[in-house]
């Protein structure tokens, strides 16, 4: 048994059992991948994969249990490297934060500025993507920390902490009829074309639920992952915008008016997530404590080290 065999098992799941893609991802040959799998099965005396001819269709029952152990072994191997790096070079390294455009643009700039000032020798990479992308990067060990509003707290391999809470707001050009309404309702908003976030981004599920609960079918004429795009088309008077309240800047968005409506849409919580069982370098812990100062380092470490489903 060797680490290459274990990496092949893990990558086979990531590539949906396509051995050609596994070989490409691991820079090896497909026959080599197949031989490693067969050698490991022979050594263990079990079949890991369900087969139809030469094709792999899924995991056998023992294969499902084996994969959990493989993932733990590879995670602990990564942790060993991080521990060694921690003591060899405490103030330098590589730190990956996966997040959405909204968080990178509006919530994180001052935190990133602080981090780069305090840890100038740490290479910080910001990976922008959807909440699903962020969760996948964390589980795969491709990111150290993830920050998003959706999805992260639904993934059992991740532990999450609340970052901040916020509400959606309505934005319209100055002179819009809605600015004259004293008590804005979803029914009134629904009389206009709506421009808001794409499904799966920045609390869109809360927007959809609010309209559904009110029995209103909104005419969403344009959706985007970027609040700046939404504001651009609202400014062109193509519709009423619904955005995260922190995405509005009174100076930069001076052609638009913000209408706070915390009574119309549920509160949203943006969360920070890390993979359970991950060893975090000191600068990663410092970053998390800066984002979530109420947690405390000891509670943070204890939460991360809990296994899936354990109390």
From TrEMBL:
PROSITE patterns: HTH_LYSR. PANTHER family: HTH-TYPE TRANSCRIPTIONAL REGULATOR, HTH-TYPE TRANSCRIPTIONAL REGULATOR CYSB-RELATED. The lineage of its organism: Bacteria, Pseudomonadati, Pseudomonadota, Betaproteobacteria, Candidatus Accumulibacter. This is CysB family HTH-type transcriptional regulator. Keywords: DNA-binding, Transcription, Transcription regulation. Coiled coil: none annotated. InterPro entries: CysB_PBP2 (IPR037423), LysR_HTH_N (IPR000847), LysR_subst-bd (IPR005119), WH-like_DNA-bd_sf (IPR036388), WH_DNA-bd_sf (IPR036390). Belongs to the LysR transcriptional regulatory family. Residues 1-59 form the HTH lysR-type domain. Gene3D superfamilies: Periplasmic binding protein-like II, Winged helix-like DNA-binding domain superfamily/Winged helix DNA-binding domain.
């Amino acid at each position: 048994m060797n680490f290459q065999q274990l990496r092949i098992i893990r990558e086979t799941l990531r590539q949906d059992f396509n051995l050609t893609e596994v070989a490409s991802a691991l820079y090896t040959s497909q026959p080599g991948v197949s031989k490693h799998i067969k050698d490991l099965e022979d050594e263990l005396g079990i079949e890991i994969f369900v087969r139809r001819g030469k094709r792999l269709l899924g995991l056998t029952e023992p294969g499902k249990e084996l994969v959990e152990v493989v993932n733990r072994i590879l995670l602990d191997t990564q942790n060993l490297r991080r521990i060694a790096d921690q003591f060899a070079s405490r103030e330098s390294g590589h730190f990956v934060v996966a997040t959405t455009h909204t968080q990178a643009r509006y919530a994180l700039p001052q935190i990133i500025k602080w981090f780069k000032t305090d840890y100038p020798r740490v290479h910080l990479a910001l990976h922008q993507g959807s909440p699903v992308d962020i969760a996948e990067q964390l589980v795969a060990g491709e990111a150290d920390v993830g920050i998003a509003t959706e999805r992260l707290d639904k993934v059992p391999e991740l532990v999450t902490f609340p970052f901040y809470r916020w509400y959606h707001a309505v934005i319209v050009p100055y002179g819009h009829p809605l600015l004259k309404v004293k008590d804005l309702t979803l029914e009134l908003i629904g009389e206009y074309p709506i421009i808001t976030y794409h499904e799966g981004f920045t609390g869109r599920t809360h927007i959809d639920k609010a309209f559904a609960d009110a029995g209103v079918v909104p005419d969403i004429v344009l959706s985007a992952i970027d609040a700046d795009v939404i504001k651009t088309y609202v400014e062109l008077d193509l519709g009423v915008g619904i955005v995260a309240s922190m995405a509005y800047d009174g100076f930069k968005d001076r052609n638009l008016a913000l209408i706070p409506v915390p009574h119309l849409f549920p509160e949203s919580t943006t969360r920070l997530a890390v993979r359970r069982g991950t060893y975090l370098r000191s600068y990663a812990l410092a970053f998390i404590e800066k984002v979530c100062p109420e947690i405390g380092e000891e509670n943070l470490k204890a939460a991360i080290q809990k296994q899936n489903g354990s109390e």
